[in-house]
Design brief:
heterodimer, A: about 250 residues, alpha/beta, seven-stranded parallel beta sheet, 7 strands, about 45% helix, B: about 250 residues
Amino acid sequence: MLFSIDGKTALVTGGSRGIGKMIATGFVEAGAKVYIAARKHAASEETAAELSKIGDCIALEADLSSEEGCRALATEIQNREDKLDILVNNAGATWAVPIEEFGDAAWDRALNVNVKGVFHMTRFLLPELRAAARPEDPARVINIGSIDGLRVPRMDTYSYSASKAAVHMLTRHLASKLAPDITVNAIAPGPFESKMMAETLRTFGDQIAASAPLRRIGRPDDMAGTAIFLASRAGSYLTGAVIPVDGGISTT
Amino acid sequence: MPIADKFSLHDKVAIVTGASSGLGVAFAQALAEAGANVVLGARRTDGLEATQRVVEAAGTKALVVATDVTFPEACTRLAAAAMEAFGRVDILVNNAGVGTAVPATREDPAEYRRVIDVNLFGSFYMAQACARVMKPGSSIINLGSVLGSTTADLPQAAYSSSKAAIIGLTRDLAQQWTGRKGIRVNAIAPGFFPTEMTEQFPPGYMEEMIERRVPIGRPGQLEECAAAVVFLASDAASYITGILLPVDGGLLTT
C-alpha cells in the first residue's frame, strides 16, 4: 500500500479552509484521523462537521501568531494523543499594502505565523512525532511554502514572500536535524482557490490561469495528492524537498 | 473520484528505458503494480526478458524492444512499437543512463561524449519520439541525480554535467509541451540507491557517504525511488510540471 495513510493521525493547522481544508479532506478520505486547527472556532467546527460525514475529523481552536498559542495547540494534541504521525504546518498570514506604508504590522503577523509558528509547532510536537516514528516509516512534517518564496510576486506582499522563502530554508534545516525519525518537506503551492487568493483570483484569475503552463489554477485534489504522497510509505525517503505544485509557473 | 484512485495507472501505457537492470526494473515493476502496461527498452534484451516476467507477475502486459537510445530512429521505433501494441503512450520514464568515475585530466573525450550521448541526447530523443504520439494528460519523467546539483567526492564531470543538463531539459520541455500538448515533464533526483552503478564504487565509499551526507542514514530502497515515479506519472500529480523532485534521504540539505 504505497500511497496509504489509513489509520495515521494528523494535525493540519489552518485546516478549516483553503489549502489546509484541501489537505484535511484528502487525508480524511484516505482514512486518517485528522485534527484541524483554526483561529475561528466556528469555521473549524463547521469544516470538521462536514468532514466527519466521510471520516474522522476533530476541530480545535488555535492562534499560532505567538509561542504561547503554539504551545496551547500542542498541549491540546498531547492531551488527546500519545503519538502524531503527520504534522501539516499550513496556517499562514499575508499582508499587501504599498511599500511606503509597509510597516512592522505588515511584517510581524506574517513572520510570526508563517515562520515562527511553523518552527514552534514542530518543536512542541517533537515527542509525539518521535513516538510515531518507526524504522522506514518516519513521522512526517509537511510545511506549506509558496511559489512566492521561489520567484518574485507581482503584488506588494514583501513579508509574505520573504516568510515563504524562510519556510523553504527552515524545511531543509529541520530536515537535516530531525532525520531519520522525522522527515520534513515543503509544498510550494501556486494559485489555488483559497480565501487568501480570492481577491487576486477575482481580479487576475483568467490571466493567472493562462500564464500557468498547465493553463488552469490548482484543484483541491492536486494539493491533497502531493500531501498524501509525502505522508505515505511512498514518501518515506524524501526529506528536505521543496515541491512546487504550481502548474509549472515557477519554471517560467 | 476517490483520492486513492488518483494514484492508479490502470490501463495506462508506460515506456521505461534502461529497463534491464537496477532502477529501471524497479520502475517497470512499480508502474505495473499501479496498473500500467509497460514497454521495456534497453540494449541488452536478455535482461529485458527478466524484467518482462516481473511486469507480467504484477498482472499487466509487457513488450520488449531492444533499443539504443543514442539513435533517434531507435527511439522513434520504440515509441512506434508501443503505439502498435497498445495504441497509446501515457508515460515515459527516461531511465537509461551511464557514468564514468575518471579524474578529469585523464578522462577520455570519447567516454565523456558517450555519457552525454546516453544521458542527455538519449533522454531528449525519447522525449521527442513520445511527445509526437502522446495525448494530453501524459507524463514524462526524466532521471536527474543529486549530482546534478552537488558533488560527492568522486570524479564525476561527465555524469554530473549530463544530469545538470537534465534539469534544464526538463524545465524547457515542460514550458514547451505542458501548455501546447498537455504533457507534464518532470525529473527526479535520486540519491544513493543500490544499483549496478553503485557496485562499482570504491570499497567503503558508500558507507562513508551515507554516514556523512545522508541524514536519513541509509541508502534508499529501489521501490522508494519508484514510488516517486509512480506519483509523478499519476493524476495525483496533475498540477506538477517542470520540477526536480529529490528522492535522496536529505542529501541535498548537506
